[in-house]
Amino acid sequence: MKIWREYFLLTAAGSLFLTGCNKPASTAGAGGGTIKVGEFASLTGSEATFGQSSHNGTQLAVDELNAAGGVLGKKIELHTEDNQSQAGQSATVVRKLISSDGVVAILGEVASSRSLEAAPICQQNKIPMISPSSTNPKVTETGDYIFRVCFIDPFQGTVMANFARQTLKLQNVAVLTDVKSDYSLGLAKFFKEGFTVAGGKIIAEQNYSGGDKDFNAQLTSIKAANPDGIFVPGYYTEVGLIALQAKQLGITVPIFGGDGWESSALVPIGGAALEGDYFSTHFSPQDTSPAVQNFVKKYEAKFKDAPDAMAALGYDSAMILADAIKKSGSTDGAKIRDALAAEKDFPGASGNITIDANRNASKPAVILEIKNGAFQYVQTVAP
Amino acid sequence: MTEFFQQLINGLAFGSILALIALGYTMVYGILRFINFAHGDIFMLGAFAGFYLAPKIATVFPLPSIAGAIAVLFISMAVCAALGVLIERVAYRPLRKRPKLTVLITAIGVSLFLEYAGQFFFGAAPKKFPDILPVLPITKIGGLSLNSNQLIVLAVTLILLVALRFIVMKTKIGTAMRAVSFNPEAAALMGVNTDVVISFTFALGSALAAAAGILWAVNYPSIDPLMGILPGLKAFVAAVLGGIGNLPGAALGGLIIGVTETLVSGYISSTYRDAIAFAVLILILLVKPSGLLGKKEIEKV
What we know:
heterodimer; A: alpha/beta; Rossmann fold; 7-stranded mixed beta sheet; 14 helices; 14 strands; 46% helix; 19% strand; globular; B: two-stranded antiparallel sheet; two-stranded antiparallel ribbon; 3% strand
């Protein structure tokens, strides 16, 4: 018994020692004929469909690249970590991906708050990070190793402000913001600025905290202000319940929001209460352009389901990384970074991607309407 | 003014669900002098029991319907009552002669176990709770919107409160429960089977939590395995506010917390909602340490 215990302790100590030595700097993820790429996503938890869609897109891209012989003659090895949609988890899993798995680059996340957790860690370690769909400007402001393949909220906020003012002809709008989310706060700010510039008026502002289920108090106050429309820059988990409770309080004006609405789980919760509501996003599978239709076909063949914007952006984030590795001819962080910064007109599934001086992608936005329980394409707005 | 009354209705509807959860907390405390921290998770299991049972029940009673909703409610309550008895038997009974703190920490362990087992078995993503009640058109009275679900919550809370009071005060098992709460050893010597009484207390408390879970899910039809944490905590506060161990006190506490939170969210900012609700608790406890309706207890030496 005693001998066994000592043996066990020795092996445990030994393995600790070995992992301790096995620091990534020497291997740099390029060893063993593969290129290690890290991905962190909200595969479970409150925003699970974001992470799942994004991961499916990324996986599709990696499979496609590997089937075509990989990058620089090496297969891509995707290391995926789940942050359970919880604050604090992203920093932990990204540290693990960098220091123990030794990845050459990081892909993730959808939610801006969680991308903001990981970005400083990637920046410190000089590991390029590409966020597929975090739209808060602060994400890439973290440093020169942080990129994204989607548009940012100043643009999205302006698009929705102009759409509300010019297409929906709204004059007085109420805003309901999630004060726990960097995404929601940023988008609300830019919408308010844009809507006021366009000649409209913000007549009520209310807050909630992500995870809340009861919005009756805020909606009752909003109803008393009698707006023509309500802007809800939140995530789908709460938006469904907000729409439902608004209808129960007798609010009939349109509710509209941003890409945080985009989820297959939105309509099952909100149901008929969401009919005639609008949101802006990155991509519509109904877009007839060949690049989009080609991606939709591949995605449907693999997952038996239509892709959403998060899937398209997940796919693009992996594809543009592979392209940058190819162009730089190396798995060195600094060289990949330089190649990423120079990407121009990269043909992505969500439109052509040009990385600007602030490492953001300049791309058109799509506005969708919820009609008969499905997302209907309304219009595309160019930057 | 209309807005104020609307906020009051919102607050009462929200508060009555908290009251229902608080009833379970306070009853178990009243009988056993023990705070069952897993109560919020039984609430969650109640909602999930309804979620998985509804499609089965729909084959007998087409859903949404009143009969179907009652069936879902009662069967979920029965499932959770059985679970409550099982948890007591496995986790708490072996520790009955141990210090109270040991049982308290075990309760926190049970709570975490249920939350993460829930994530494992049900998945962590929020699920849409099926429509079990027919949605009636919104009633409008002088600009106030009353929705049928909110009224049902108020009514069910009231009915369960009266039923509970009847069981505790008028029935034989209720008398035995009160006897055990006064002095378990003396009650046992008088021929009361304390094991049965304690199991029954847990069954009743868990059934109440399940009822609250179903009502919550009918009003806020997005359920997930961690949904019980916050309502559980608030209901605990409500029970303390009303005077823990006191049944009408728990109901009153729930309504006060619900109305305070709603008024703060509506008129000040939802950011300060919890802070102000807890400040109210502290103020009331400073003035009346045993809670609003609680009796002063004399520590026997």
